[in-house]
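re: ur question from earlier - yeah i can do the single chain one, its not a big deal. heres the input i used so u can compare w yours
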Amino acid sequence: MPLMLCCDRILVWIILSLTLFGLLMVYSTSAVAPQSSSLYIAKQLVAAVIGFAAMYGLMFFDYRCLRNPRVVYAVLAACVCLLLIAMALGTGANTRRFLRLGLLSLQPSELAKPAVILFLAYFLERNRDRMDRLASLVTPAIVVGIFAALILVGKDFGTTFCLVVIAMAMLFIAGVPIFYFALGTVPAIPVFYFAVWQVEYRRERILAFLNPEADPLGSGFQVLQSQIAVGSGGLFGKGWMVGKQKMLFLPEAHTDFIYATVGEELGLIGTLLLVIAFCLFLWRGLRAALGAPDLFGAYLASGITAMIVSQAMLNMGVALGLLPTKGMPLPFISYGGSSLITVLASSGVLLNVSRFGR
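and the output i got, formated as tokens:
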């Protein structure tokens, strides 16, 4: 039997379709960018090639090799080092997110998400009979807290929030009582107050989310322009490459708000098809987790699925004005080499788990 037939072929086609669609939308949205659109699409193509190579390699090895504690803690240590280097030497608009590697750049916070998933899968399997005890949550809380703090110092609240959502999803699947999640909101309140409400631009984003019309040319500009883009697309859209909002009206049209451009150019049909694609990804990801031959594989598959689907939901929610604005790429679709390589490599591990499934 060919190797490809051993994997979840439906999931493979979903990943390939989303990535190809993302390349088309990056080309469309970058056509009016300050830099040449060919440069944007060239970088994204390079990232896609690297990502597919990583996906193929991770697809056909035994994922149980990742259970080795030396591998788990080496990955954690490497990610912590990259985050510390990014804090000291990183670049970005009002952030410390990126490490420049020639023409390309690396965003360590993107690598932190699969690293935390790997650790939690390893930890939860080893402590599967003790997850109803509060003391068992100290170690994962410390590890997730360290990564969240490092990413938050780099002024990337969106990735921090996504990391916490992933961890909570995996802990819930592992059987942690809901009461402990409610208990966790007590220390989260002061953290939210100082990290969000006391930071001016984050507070303005929340206020703009509640009432964007109060400052239509300032803090509410992104939300309103995104809603205009989605609403003007109608049922079938204006056509690929024909959108107007990306012409310097809609900020970050090729990254954080690419879903709004999909709505303008491909209409309600295009946005719904994209939602359906991620729903199918959720279905096949949970299927791989349920069919995994061991708990490590089940936690690994569920964590990767939660990472990609939750990030997609957050991005779409922001573009539709259902959530406050935050920097969050749409998996497989948005421009960004680190994001694309990370989700493709993680998808390779997910496909690997599906190979061994029942």
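Residues 3-355 form one domain. not sure if urs matches, ping me
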